[in-house]
């Protein structure tokens, strides 16, 4: 009878025998490696992730800003209030209107003053032309009189008496004309000065009219934002009209112990119990006083505001919301479980050479059992989490064999050469 050798079964049995023999040898050998090796029960890897430390609060949706319209008596009488409470308005929507009758009357009076000044300038120009004409005639007479006196003195040269009379007559006439010319010139200068004064008044009146006409366009006060009319005072009490904006913010309250952790610029996320989704925001205003006046020993509450990057659709002002405030944050941080950090701030890295490497690390933010490692490890490295043996630097390590993953099918898939290789490898590890 011939025996057929099943090489696969034979190799498997031989490998198991060698494996068990090697482990028994290492266990009972006094100086064996296994007595110094660390048994690592659980391990993890260094991951990269975002960490954030948060605290919870509650709040209400509120208008981001308000726009108030005040009655100004100096602008005139109030003509009309153009909106009512609850009206939706846009930026530029007319809200109130002043009466323009006083301004229009003032403009009419100034225009009448300009007309009067222009008429006076016209009359002065006519007078100046008449004076310049008279001045020209006087100058012509002086020239003619001088020529006639010269001829007479030549013709009557021998008559000394007549010559003397002629000289007296010439001298007296010339002096009189000079006085007249001087008087005319002074009168012309006075009228030109008056014209300059009137022209300056006209410029001033025109500037006032321009300002008043610009003021006419401001007789209507318009809204400066989109929103709703919150209140209207028909009794002219200030503010006459109050507009609340469409843009939302969140007003929240915190007790003193949490409020001290809050700071402006802190990030926040807001959710609603009735509307899906989340809105991001930033803490923009923190009150420096409590919202109430509690008795001694009672807790105080402090208000704060969050500027939302986007409105909550479907929520109106006054809706309740939940707020998550991010007090600390570490982005793209290298992290490990906090339990993997041993005494004196160190971790044990499972190196590729089969030995442990003790690393001093600089820890950072810790959130829910996860610790940020600022310095000391690299992403993807294997870190000891739990061990039943004492951990030492450069000590060899081993991990439990997961026999549950063994299967007959896996052995059947191995060929004869692989069986022999694994058996020899196991033998050489003894």
UniProtKB/TrEMBL annotation:
Entry coiled-coil feature ranges: 181-215
Keywords noted in UniProt: Coiled coil
Domain YknX-like barrel-sandwich hybrid residues, every copy: 68-236
GO molecular function, one term: efflux transmembrane transporter activity
InterPro entries: Beta-barrel_YknX, BSH_YknX-like
Biased composition (Acidic residues): 152-166
Feature: compositional bias, Low complexity: 136-151
Keyword Coiled coil: yes
Gene Ontology CC annotation, any one: efflux pump complex
Pfam families: Beta-barrel_YknX, BSH_YknX
YknX-like beta-barrel domain location: 249-323
Region annotation Disordered: where it falls in the sequence: 135-176
Alphabetized PANTHER family for the sequence: HLYD FAMILY OF SECRETION PROTEINS, MULTIDRUG RESISTANCE PROTEIN MDTA
Descriptive protein name: Efflux RND transporter periplasmic adaptor subunit
Protein source organism: Bacillus canaveralius
Upper classification of the organism: Bacteria, Bacillati, Bacillota, Bacilli, Bacillales
